[in-house]
Design a protein that fits this description.
The chain is 34% helix and 21% strand. The strands form seven sheets. It has a six-stranded antiparallel β-sheet with strand order 10-11-12-13-7-14, sandwiched between helices. A five-stranded mixed β-sheet has the order 22-20-19-23-24. It has a four-stranded antiparallel β-sheet with strand order 3-4-6-5, with no helix packed on it. By secondary structure, the protein is an alpha+beta fold. The longest helix is centred in the last third of the chain and has 28 residues, at 627-654.
Amino acid sequence: MGPVTECGETRAADLPLPNLPPSPEVLEYSPDALGNTLKREDSRSMKCRQPLRDAGDEVPDHEMASASAPEFYEVPVPEDDDDLLLGDTECFLAFPDQRQVWEMTLRETQADMDNLPSAQQALEYVLLATPERKKRVEVRMQDLSEGERDQFSQAKGKEARLVVLGFEDPGLNDTPNDAPTLGKDARQLILQKVASNRSKLINFDISTAFLQGRGDGRKLGIHPPEEIRQALDMKPGDQCQLMGGAYGRIDAPFLWFKTLKGTLESLSFTQSPFDACTFSLITQHPQGRPKVHGVLGIHMDDGLRGGDSYFRMVIQKLRDKYSCGSYDEGEFTFTGIHFRQWDDGSIEYDQQEYLDRIQPAHIPRNRRCEPESPLRPDEVHELRRLNGSIQYAAVHTPPDLAAKVGMLQSAVPKAKILHLIEASRLLHEAKSNHVSLMTVPFPEQHVAFCTFSDASFASSRDSNSYQGTLVVATDWRMLANEKAVIVPMVWSSRKIARVVRSTLSAEVVSLCNSVDRMSCLRLFWEWMKDPSVDISQPDEVLKGAPQAALVTDCKSAYDIATKTAVPSCSELRTQLECLLFRERLLENCQMRWVHSKAMLADCLTKTMDSSELRRCLASGQYSPYDEDKVLAERQGRRQSLEWLRKDAEDASAAF
């Protein structure tokens, strides 16, 4: 093999090149027909390899001339899609000299560095390999005529893509244009499922996915550009019928998802009733119970998956049907989140690289001196940019930013310079405090959920109340008052949608929403473990699931939930909500009380220091306390103070 350069490229001249016979023209440039674009006449012939010759065979002179190559040529491997041929993620062109053009077809290989092909085996292709990236490159060489050389020199670096004007679709308002996006809850449960089974976490990307969707039966006509009219010898007024997916078509993502769903179902995948982009590979166990071999999440044309050997075999059939542009195991970036799987099966993920790329807002000194001054239109644009960029990270990885960015979002309509300054400070805080989350391989049957719920009453400048929810995955140790490992699953920080009149009312609203979120997550997880559960009877399913916990720091709400007496509140609506969330606790859910300093969701309700939550996430552990013992100690101290106060009053009266 040739030497590997720093950029991961192999020098093709150091490898023996194949002796190829004259091949038919596989690349043709036709400026009159396609307007400075490359047209592939026979893509199959470009990708097929020529058979090896025996060592003693003579090579004709004309073949030697056509296969000649420069003494040294370093093959430039594209690093992104911009340099790929016609947007194809598998092919690109190389120009070793003025008389030749090489089309390079990338193929992934599972060969490790110790088992690379020998020089004799490499006659058919050039191998580009580094410890991180291994690609096999098939080479086809072709001599160019003088006219073709001129055409290629003009077309080099250019690409074209036919895009239809989707906004002119006659069924624009009635056609479904949903895009297949994986929900956050589903993604987190897929990570937990993969980690619990200690499977390999794999990410893949399907090339030209939107072009592979089947049509929906509508007869759509398009007016082709002039170049295509000339190439197809079309008459004035002739149209082309659009039979399937196309770039620009408003329902292209939906058609692609329907096509992919049909393919997955033909491979025995089952769609989740909780998230349309989540699929499980299920077979029947000999004892009659379903067996889940793996899970797959689809996000547009990307996928996140993990499973056993049978699951990988079925996925290979999917890869044979659809061409994958990328296929990464163990460490990759998916939807802007960097994932890394460790040897024990645990999965670490963060968005630090994404946060580092966010540029802060430039605020002139004279504007900083006017914090109460309203923002100008360009400054409002900067505030929206910062808020949107930070919010995307706060939703997926660092929960400590959620409340602060949420309050900045609500301030945009009446934003001032001080809000832009706060946004810049929040960005600096996010970059300075690296938050990395970890999914731990709990055994499936031991995974339990614990929800921290908190609320703040009239805590913002506009006197709005906010609620915060943090749902973590843990095991039985949490309910046994032992130090337990916690895995953040979902979190939220939002304004309470209605006016509340007291702290108790705000806490009860937050508890109701939090227990609903946790119940849905628990039901989803039970289905992911055993798809035969009857989700039409959620109460029965959750009663048979591992016990969950709902944690609050509001003593009044805790008393209402744990006492059997009918709650008595000044607000009748709050009283009804207390009865509702007390009923939800019957779904094998335990109510817990903690001190305010131990409430992990506290920083999700107001602008405050988030260092305690970050420390807990960094350690990955949380230790609850026996609330009965703590409350008894508090009651004992209160009685002692009352006795001391009474003794002091008696002594004063006697004096």
